[in-house]
Write a structure and sequence with these properties.
By secondary structure, the protein is mostly beta strands. The chain has helices at residues 3-6, 144-149, 207-213, 217-222, 248-251; strands at 49-60, 69-70, 72-74, 80-82, 87-92, 95-104, 107-110, 135-137, 180-186, 199-205, 227-231, 242-243, 258-260, 265-279. The protein contains 5 helices and 14 strands. The strands form 4 sheets. It has a 5-stranded antiparallel sheet. Strand 5 (87-92) and strand 6 (95-104) form a beta hairpin. The chain is globular, with a radius of gyration of 18 Å.
């Protein structure tokens, strides 16, 4: 079936859905710099244990679950801002801990959504990290428009996506005109943040997102004007996947989906599901 016919407008495949994926599939899943945690590990003040999150649907390949969504909003000047959960102090057994957690659109949003593949060790994702929340364009991108039209480190702005309904991938990958992407970083500014410690983000603006967010509490609260952001780290072996960046994805019929060419894991950015995974704990001194 041709890619342009793969998801007809009337198909439910073009709708955001909610579901639940069991955490058992990721029992013992490890990440760089942290020991594996099994599904019996309870949450603690420093993270770890089974955690529900909202993320992209895992469509195919070896990845155990989808990639977590980053809620966003647009400021008065048109710049995109990632929402960081509210930090608060809690007391457990006489000790005080700081956590980052709040309810958005009826969902408990936590910094622990990003506790895998070393995300739990990133300085910018520590609950107490003094970081701004604007998205900044990444230094490394495979999108020609981003290489030519904006500067690395520049803040992501709505105006840069004016042509999102007409944008086409360089090699005509998948269906044309269903969205415009960008590579960005988040909570990763300052001299103390190295390039290997930045928080990678995939941003997509799509009419599909704008249309289907209406009436959904979570999506209305976590997306705006058709923009959606994803923590861009494959949940299989921590590679950086892409949306419409390689023709190899066409061989698997996934030209309209996020594709990780390392091990062929596939994620649907237009289907956001409630899922669960085993979050890895931060070290005490990372708080």
């Amino acid at each position: 079936m041709a890619d342009e016919d793969k998801y007809p407008v009337e198909s439910d495949r073009r709708r955001f859905v909610k579901g639940v994926v069991g955490a058992a599939a990721v029992a013992g899943f490890g990440a760089s710099g942290a020991a594996a945690v099994n599904t019996s590990t309870p949450p603690s003040p420093v993270g770890g244990g089974v955690r529900n999150f909202m993320g992209t649907e895992m469509v195919d390949g070896p990845a155990p679950n989808g990639m977590p969504q980053i809620p966003l909003e647009i400021d008065d000047e048109g710049y995109l801002v990632g929402i960081w959960p509210e930090t608060q102090e809690i007391e457990v057994d006489g000790e005080t801990f700081v956590i980052a957690e709040e309810e958005i659109g009826g969902i408990e949003y936590s910094s622990e959504w990003y506790h895998y593949c070393g995300g739990q060790t990133l300085p910018g994702l520590a609950p107490t990290a003094d970081q701004e929340n604007y998205f900044h364009y990444s230094e490394i991108t495979q999108y020609e428009w981003q290489q030519s039209d904006v500067d690395a480190g520049e803040r992501v702005h709505v105006d840069h996506f004016d042509d999102y309904m007409e944008w086409e991938a360089t090699e005509d990958i998948g269906t044309s005109g269903i969205g415009k992407p960008a590579n960005a970083r988040w909570r990763s500014e300052g001299d103390d943040i190295g390039s290997a410690e930045t928080v990678p983000v995939l941003i997509i603006r799509s009419e599909l997102i704008e249309e289907t967010a209406a009436g959904d509490d979570w999506l209305e609260a976590s997306t705006e004007d058709g923009f959606i952001a994803v923590f861009n780290t494959c949940t299989h072996f921590c590679c950086i996947p892409g949306w419409k960046v390689t023709r190899e994805s066409m061989q698997f019929g996934t030209g309209d989906e996020i594709y990780c060419q390392c091990h062929q894991s596939v994620y649907d950015p237009f289907t956001i599901m409630e899922q669960s995974f085993v979050a890895l704990p931060r070290e005490d001194d990372d708080l």
